[in-house]
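Sat 14:20. Reprocessing the chain from the morning session after the first attempt stalled halfway. Input below, unchanged.
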Amino acid sequence: MDKFAAISMFVATAEQGSFSRAAEQLGKTPSALTKAVSHLENELGVRLFERSTRRTVLTEAGSVYLDTARQVLMRLHEAGEVVAQMQHGLHGLLRLTAPLAFGRAFLDDVCAGFLREYPQIRLRVDLSDDFVDLVESGYDLALREGHNDLPGLISRVVGSNCLTLCASPDYLECNPLPVTPQTLDRHDWLLYRHPALSRLYWWVEKDGERLSLLQPTAARLESDNYDLLLASALAGGGLFHVPLWSGAPYLADGRLVRLMADYTIDPDAFGPKILAVYPSHRRATGKVLAFIDYLAAYLARRGLD
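Finished this time. Tokens:
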């Protein structure tokens, strides 16, 4: 029996938890999968599954074997991609995950330009503010703010994550009180809520002195959706912390005004950089590196490197 075909059937059965569901997924018969797994078990001298009429569960040995089997299949797939790219150039599917706000701010333009430059590549882009485990989820690449200290991942800085305090001209005309650390609680606020961010204070630095400023206790609008808050800020809703990767065009055309410009705002848990993160086993994948290079060049052209 083809060893790699048997391994593929074993992995599918483990992931589906059923010979019949795995057979349906692979377009084979359940008896073919049972025979393949039995062949592996005989070769290894251990049982990989505990079988019953109700369920199929991995044994301890099966769990250990599954981790290696997945890696083997993944590496073979990647080797095939590399060889194919040597013959035909960059092509195939690139799976990417990124925060929601990156989409409107720059990722829509980046993806459109990248697809024009690499017509044989297809993109799958999933935007979510939830943390995604790259190794388990099957994504090729993630864009993140902050730090990368997780094992098995490689990160590359592709842009900066500088914050600025902003408001629209309409808001400032209706609320002429100067915006200073002493008057912050007398202004309307738009607050982005995220589990990693403090609800009590935010940090700034001026002339080498680091200060903590209290968060307003009653914001006019709070949300976990950045784009909703940005729209409100543009409509005159109040003061808003805006990262330059999003706010630069609005500051340039005057739709937003930068406030307390002599203060440097700490991006807190999000960190000062935008990172491209990918599993270490995809180190040599050309399409991943090509996308990272394209994104970094795009952000650099906008002054966000």
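The radius of gyration is 25 Å.
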